[in-house]
Amino acid sequence: MSVHTDKQLCTGCGTCVNTCPGDLLLLGKDGKAILRERRDCWDCMVCVKACPSGALGVRLPYQVARKGATIQPEVGVDYIRWILQ
C-alpha cells in the first residue's frame, strides 16, 4: 500500500506535507503533493486523514480488494469512517 494523489483534487495547500511524520511528502513543481519514495511510506495514513480536499488516498493490494481499489476517510467531529472505493 502507499499514498497516491488525485492531481485534480489536490489544491497544493501543504497540509499533507506538514502532517507526514516521516517527512515523505512534498509539493512538486506543479504545486501538487507527491510522495518522495513509495517504499518508505509507513502507511500510517495521517496525510490521508488530514487532507482537506480528499485528494490523497491509499491503493489497496489486490490480495485485499479488487484491482485499483482505494480507501478514503470520511472524517467527522468525533469519528473517522473508512470507505472502500
* Percent range for β-strand residues: 25-35%
| Through-space gap between termini | 15 Å
Cα-atom Rg, whole angstroms?
A: 12 Å
Major β-sheet, in short? 4 strands, antiparallel
- Structural class category: alpha+beta
Helical segment tally?
2
> Quick one: overall form?
globular
Number of strands: 6
H/E series:
EHEEHEEE
Low-pLDDT residue spans: none
Order of neighbouring strands in the sheet with most strands: 1-4-5-6
Average predicted local confidence, pLDDT: 87
Helix content range of the residues, please? 10-25%
Task: Tell me about this structure.
The chain is an alpha+beta fold and 85 residues long. Helix content is 12%, strand content 29%. The protein has 2 helices and 6 strands. It has helices spanning 15-19, 46-50, and strands at residues 2-5, 25-27, 33-35, 56-59, 70-75, 80-84. The strands form 2 sheets. A 4-stranded antiparallel sheet has the order 1-4-5-6. A two-stranded antiparallel sheet has the order 2-3. The protein is globular, with a radius of gyration of 12 Å. The protein starts with a strand and ends with a strand. The mean pLDDT is 87.
Short account of what is shown:
The chain is of the alpha+beta class. The chain has helices at 15-19, 46-50, and strands at 2-5, 25-27, 33-35, 56-59, 70-75, 80-84. The protein is built from two helices and six strands; from the N terminus they run βαββαβββ.
Secondary structure layout:
Elements: E1 2-5, H1 15-19, E2 25-27, E3 33-35, H2 46-50, E4 56-59, E5 70-75, E6 80-84
Antiparallel strand pairs: 1-4, 2-3, 4-5, 5-6
